[in-house]
Automatic annotation (TrEMBL):
Entry GO MF terms: aromatic-L-amino-acid decarboxylase activity; pyridoxal phosphate binding; transaminase activity
Protein name as annotated: Aspartate aminotransferase family protein
Species of origin: Georgenia yuyongxinii
Cofactor(s) this protein cannot do without: pyridoxal 5'-phosphate
Coiled-coil ranges per UniProt: none
Positions of modified residues (N6-(pyridoxal phosphate)lysine): 294
Keywords, comma-separated and alphabetical: Aminotransferase, Decarboxylase, Lyase, Pyridoxal phosphate, Transferase
GO terms (BP aspect): carboxylic acid metabolic process
Length: 459
């Protein structure tokens, strides 16, 4: 056998060709998938082969079979959930990450990754307006970013109460109160479950889903101040709304609480002078979670945990083993739950380097502009009501009664031009739109609105 790199040439060439073909279909392929799982399993061949298969054949078979079962999530007309596409620089950088195959837990093991992570972390703190000294951890997504920040929060507030969780665990610990807004993201509850903290206390929200500071104050005024965490939200998945940070943080801190902000997509409002005021006072919090695979448009998966108190994060996440070459200044592994991990900071660095400050601002502004175009276009249709104040990237519309709205939701999926799915918000069925893809153009928005008009005419 020759130099083994030749073993990679043909499969990588094939993968490159398949990727270009896939990206080439995005402008016009139906957004929903065209095959179901049973068909795909049958086409893949469910039996484990006895003998090896050449890598080229594996790649060709994979691409040929998967195609019909792929949802065009990177399409400019995917408006479901909060997804985000992939910037060209970020996708290409992510390929390098796979090829370089660096285990990125230790600084001294991979200086290239550590340098990129340091630079990306500094750029993120700058663009997101977060304290210069904060620790930044690159995790798999918003859920794990919430988990990571809340682990630091849990340990720190209990430590202040004289209870070192790392040694003693939670059994017999002082009561720890966790307060969340009524419309926090469900993953906050999930993170609290992982942390052994159980269900949080729920604070009332207003008509846009924003936590009500008066309700927070009333809840905190009950009982003595003990270990407490308050979770706020930047970017409600239905309305896009932002909690009133300045007021809520002032109240929480007066009671000695740690304040965490879930800003999976909304924290990016900080990157534009137009939307930063929506976040007023957010930088007074103690930790912030966000995603890079949403608004920043890096490929899956990348979430970001930012913690003001570096020592608190390191105390919660750090580990030591004799065989690891640790750096006294702290290692990437001290900021995340994992030991071994992918070089997630690299696509983030590439996305930010390709956008620059102005491009990042423009990206956020463009999402907001498209969301407003959607809201205006929908409002102009007969019997359609936009339920939320469109302050950011999210739009929720109703089409009369719940049954009619559901028919529109189903009609949109059957039509296939755009992906917008349903939800329930404020007691009503809604069609939800989330604008989060860099490649969404005015034309994509117009084509999608035309699809809604077409579907509406048929229900
Ligand atoms: C998407 C989202 C999350 C969860 O993020 P994942 O990356 O899916 O784990 C948490 N909070 C909010 C507000 C979100 O929009």
């Amino acid at each position: 056998m020759d130099w083994p790199s030749q073993e990679y040439d043909a499969p990588l060439d094939r993968a490159h060709a398949h990727v270009r073909a896939w990206l080439g279909t995005l402008a016009d392929r139906p957004v929903p998938p065209q095959a179901d799982i049973d068909e795909l399993v049958a086409a893949l061949g469910p039996e484990l082969p006895e003998a090896p298969t050449p890598a080229v054949e594996v790649v060709d078979h994979l691409a040929a079979v998967a195609d019909a079962g792929l949802t065009a999530m990177p399409s400019g007309r995917f408006f479901g959930f909060v997804i985000g596409g992939t910037l060209p620089a970020a996708l290409a950088a992510d390929w390098l990450v796979s090829a370089w195959d660096q285990n990125s837990g230790l600084r001294r093991l991979t200086p290239a990754h550590s340098a990129l992570e340091d630079v990306a972390a500094a750029w993120l703190r700058d663009l997101l307006g977060l304290p210069a000294g904060s620790a930044v951890g690159f995790v798999t997504g918003g859920t794990m970013a919430n988990f990571t920040c809340l682990a630091a929060a849990r340990d720190e507030v209990l430590r202040r109460a004289g209870w070192p969780v790392a040694e003693r665990g939670l059994t017999g610990a002082p009561r720890l109160r966790v307060l969340v807004g009524a419309e926090r993201h469900d993953t906050v509850d999930l993170a609290l479950r992982y942390l052994g903290l159980g269900a949080p206390e729920v604070v009332a929200a207003d008509d846009q889903g924003r936590l009500r500071p008066d309700a927070l104050a009333a809840a905190l005024d009950v009982g003595p101040d003990g270990p407490t965490i308050v979770c706020l939200q930047a970017g409600n998945v239905h309305s896009g709304a932002f909690d009133p940070f300045a007021e809520a943080i002032e109240i929480a801190h007066r009671h000695g609480a740690w304040v965490h902000v879930d800003g999976a997509f909304g924290l990016w409002a900080a990157a534009s002078p137009t939307t930063r005021p929506l976040l007023g006072g957010y930088d007074g919090a103690d930790s912030w979670a966000t995603d890079a695979h949403k608004t920043l448009n890096v490929p899956y998966d990348c979430g970001i945990a930012v913690v003001r108190d570096r020592a608190a994060l390191r105390a919660a996440m750090g580990m030591h083993a004799a065989y690891l070459i640790a750096d006294d200044a702290g290692d990437p592994l001290d900021t995340v739950p994992e030991l071994s991990r992918r070089a997630r900071a690299v696509p983030v660095w590439a996305a930010l380097r390709s956008l620059g400050r102005s491009g990042t601002t423009e990206l956020v502004d463009r999402f907001c502009r498209h969301a407003r175009t959607f809201a205006d276009g929908l409002t102009a249709m007969d019997g359609v009501q936009v339920l939320n104040d469109v302050v950011f990237t999210q739009v929720c519309a109703t089409f009369g009664d719940d049954a009619r709205t559901r028919r529109v939701v189903e009609g949109m999926l059957a039509d296939g031009t755009a992906w917008m799915t349903g939800s329930r918000w404020r007691g009503r069925d809604v069609l939800r739109i989330s604008v989060s893809n860099w490649s969404t153009s005015e034309d994509d928005v117009e084509r999608s609105l035309a699809a809604v008009r077409r579907v509406l005419a048929g229900v």
